[in-house]
Design goal:
The protein is mainly alpha-helical. 57% of the residues lie in helices and 4% in strands. The chain is globular.
């Protein structure tokens, strides 16, 4: 069997190819189901399932963030770049939730016959019935490969994280993968560290620390604190910022 290496490609290219073929096969299999099937005996019909899913998601979706109010509470400051990160994240999630809320509202109206079920709404309806995230959402969304149930829970958790940050202040531990654009968080962290220690931003880098064998998160935190204490004793700021990944 020929491997991707002989074509100058990474060995993982075969995994990517297999994943795409599997997803395409499953997608085509779902399309073979009739779109106008009647309600099965003892089960729920297509319209019932789609309506319940849309109502549930719309009820759980919180209101959009008040960007003007957040900007007043967290203004742009030279000493604190995380304020800008918070505002920018809220703006991005507002765009996403606006698309989600609009599509859910229009879909419920279409299911009641109040508006025309156009191609976009039909695609959203089919995605709900199949348990997939609509492509309409993904075009404005953060990167995700989760099905609809996992995606919706993930989105609500991300919105809750930003809401808690806004009301209670910056958390002690940030949910790195919960950011819409994680690069902004890394850049803000570098800026804060460089300005606090009076270092050039291009001389500061991020050092990723992973758990060692048989090391608990508590041991890792203690090890990093000891390293920080040693650096402070030497009175020389380290050019690296440690980020703990669990």
């Amino acid at each position: 069997v020929q491997t991707p290496v002989i074509f100058g490609m990474d060995p993982n290219a075969e995994i990517t190819k297999g994943t795409k073929e599997t997803l395409r096969l499953l997608s085509d299999t779902l399309k073979t189901r009739g779109l106008s099937q009647g309600e099965p005996a003892g089960g729920e019909g297509r319209e019932t399932v789609v309506t319940e899913v849309a109502k549930d998601l719309l009820a759980k979706l919180p209101p959009q963030f008040d960007i003007q109010e957040v900007t007043l509470a967290y203004p742009t400051l030279y000493e604190e770049s995380m304020n800008s990160v918070l505002v920018q994240e809220m703006i991005r999630y507002n765009r996403l939730t606006a698309v989600v809320r609009e599509s859910l509202g229009q879909l419920l109206k279409a299911m009641r016959g109040l508006v025309v079920m156009d191609e976009k709404l039909e695609a959203v309806s089919s995605a709900f019935y199949d348990g997939r995230v609509p492509q309409l959402w993904l075009s404005s969304s953060f990167s995700s490969l989760k099905p609809l149930a996992g995606y919706s829970q993930d989105l609500l958790r991300r919105l809750k994280m930003l809401e808690s940050w806004c009301k209670e202040g910056p958390p002690c531990i940030f949910w790195f993968s919960g950011f819409y654009f994680p690069h902004a968080f890394l850049t803000g962290t570098l800026q804060n560290y460089a300005r606090r220690n009076k270092l050039a931003i291009d001389t500061v880098a991020v050092s990723y620390t992973h758990l060692r064998a048989h090391e608990t998160p508590e041991h890792l935190v203690c090890r990093l604190l000891l390293e920080k204490k040693k650096t402070q004793t030497e009175k020389k700021p380290s050019p690296y910022i440690n980020i703990i990944l669990f």
